[in-house]
Every structure is written in C-alpha cells, then in structure tokens.
Amino acid sequence: MEIKKIEEFRNNKIKRLPPSVIKDIELKNQARRLANLAPIKIKVRMCIACNQPFESAGNRTCGCNTRSTGYIAGREII
Ligand SMILES: [Zn+2]
Q1: Distance 60 CA to ligand 1 centre (A)
Q2: Distance 29 CA to ligand 1 centre (A)
Q3: Amino acid 13: pLDDT
Q4: What is the per-residue pLDDT across 8-38, written as a single tens digit (0 to 9) for each?
C-alpha cells in the first residue's frame, strides 16, 4: 500500500523539494530577513529539461539532468 502511494506521488504529483532543502531555505530566509533582503520563495515551475512541474527555489530544472552528480533541484542531497 505504502509503496503504491509513493509511486502515484512520483507519477502524478509535483516534484517536491526534499525537507532538508526546505529547512535550508528557511534558515537562509531568516538570515536574509536580518539583512533586509527579500526572502527566497519556493514556486512551482516547469522543468526546462523534462517539462515536469516541480517546486523550485529559483532553479530552472527539477534536477533530472543533474541527478548523476547527486543533485536534486540544484542542491546536494545526502
Ligand atoms: Zn526535469
């Protein structure tokens, strides 16, 4: 059941940023607020490489073209 749900999520839904990346953005936004900079906004956009909708913090691709180097949405994941 769980695996099926995950598969559906992958097939039909927007690619989400991993929680570690969202946390990273939140921390950066706190620093940006202190520095009077506009916060980084997470937006849904279309990947220019594979045309899938994905959550972006300014990236133009969902990470599909950089997966081989261990990056998703332009950020390193472990
Ligand atoms: Zn893509």
Answers
A1: 9
A2: 25
A3: 76
A4: 555 567 888 889 989 999 999 999 999 999 9
β-strands 53-56, 43-46 pairing: antiparallel
Instruction: Kindly state the tokens that stand for 5.
Output: 């749900």
Q: Tokens at residue 73, please?
A: 């949405």
**47 CA distance to ligand 1 middle (Å):** 5
Instruction: Write down the domain spans for the chain.
Output: 15-76
Q: Closest Cα to residue 5, out of 13, 18, 77?
A: 13
Name the residues around ion ligand 1, CB cutoff 5 A.
47, 49-50, 61-62, 64
Provide the pLDDT for residue 78: 46
Residue 34 Cα to ligand 1 midpoint, Å, equals 33
